[in-house]
Amino acid sequence: MKKATKLMTLLLLAIMASSCSSVRVAADYDKNVKFSELKTFAFYKPGIDKAEISDLDKRRILRAIESELLAKGMTKSETPDMLVSIFTKSQQRVDVYNNAWGWGGWGWGGFGPGWGWGWNQPSVSTNTEGTLYIDFIDANKKELVWQGMGTGYLATKDIEKKEARIREFVTKVLEKYPPGSRK
Predict the structure, then answer these.
(1) How far apart are CA 42 and CA 78, in angstroms?
(2) CB neighbour list of residue 69: distance below 8 Å, 6 or more residues apart
(3) Is position 154 within any domain?
(4) Total tally of structural domains belonging to the chain
(5) Does any domain span residue 50?
(6) What's the CATH code of the domain at 98?
(7) Rounded CA gap, 9 and 6, in Å?
(8) Which residues contact 122 (CB under 8 A, 6 or more apart)?
(9) In degrees to the nearest 10, what's the CA dihedral of 35, 88, 42, 31?
(10) Residue 15 lies in a domain
(11) What does pTM read for this prediction?
C-alpha cells in the first residue's frame, strides 16, 4: 500500500511540474501586411512604460525580444519599419486537488462488521500566472500588425530561473512570428 501511495504522489507531482513549465501561446495578425518587408525594429517606449512590472523585468524581456528578432535576421534601427511594445498582466491562481482515493472490503451495508481504508486530504496551491503580450506596430501607419501572447506560471524567487523563464516566454511567443513561418 505504501508503494501505491508513493506512486500516486510522484505521479501527481510530475503532472503538476509539467503543467507549470509550459507556456501557452497564441498570435494574431493583419493578413494584409507583408511581414517580409518589415526588416528593422525599435522599441516603443510609451507602450513599454505602461507595462506594470519592474524595470529590471522590462529590461530582461526587451533583451530577450531583441535577441530573438536579431536571430530572425532583423536589425535594430533609429528609423524602424516596426515598433515593438509589450504589455503584461498577472493573476493569482488557486488550484485545489482533492486526493480522495482508497479501497474497502466486505461488510453488510452499514449493518455490522466491515473494514476499509481511505484518504481524503485536499491540497491547495497558489501560483502566479502571468501573460506577456508582444505587439508589433507598423512604424509608418502606427497600427498594430501582429500580436503574440504567452501565458504561464512565473518564477520569481531565483533570478537565474526568472531570466530563463522570461527567455522561454519570449522564445515561445516569437516562434509564431512571422506568420506562417512555423506551424
Answers:
(1) 7
(2) 41, 76, 84, 174
(3) yes
(4) 1
(5) yes
(6) 3.30.160.670
(7) 5
(8) 96, 97, 98, 99
(9) 10
(10) no
(11) 0.72
How far is 48 from 91, CA to CA, in rounded Å? 20
Tell me which of 95 and 132 has the higher pLDDT: 132
For the residues 104-113, what does the mean pLDDT come to? 51
C-alpha–C-alpha distance, residues 151 and 90, integer Å = 9
- DSSP for the chain, written as a single string: -HHHHHHHHHHHHHHHHHHHH--EEEEEE-TTS-GGG--EEEE-HHHHHTS-S-HHHHHHHHHHHHHHHHHTT-EE-SS-SEEEEEEEEEEEEEEEE--EEEEE----TTSS---EEEEE--EEEEEEEEEEEEEEEETTTTEEEEEEEEEEE---S-HHHHHHHHHHHHHHHHTT-STTS--
User: At 55, is the pLDDT very low, low, confident or very high (cuts 50, 70, 90)?
Assistant: very high
Average pLDDT, the chain: 82
Q: Rounded CA gap, 43 and 91, in Å?
A: 26
Residue 1 inside a domain? The answer is no
Please list, in sequence order, all residues whose beta carbon lies within 8 angstroms of the beta carbon of residue 119, skipping any fewer than 6 positions away. Answer: 5, 99, 100, 101, 102
**Alpha carbon distance 15, 9 (integer Å):** 10
Q: Which domain holds residue 30?
A: 21-174
C-alpha cell at 151: 501565458
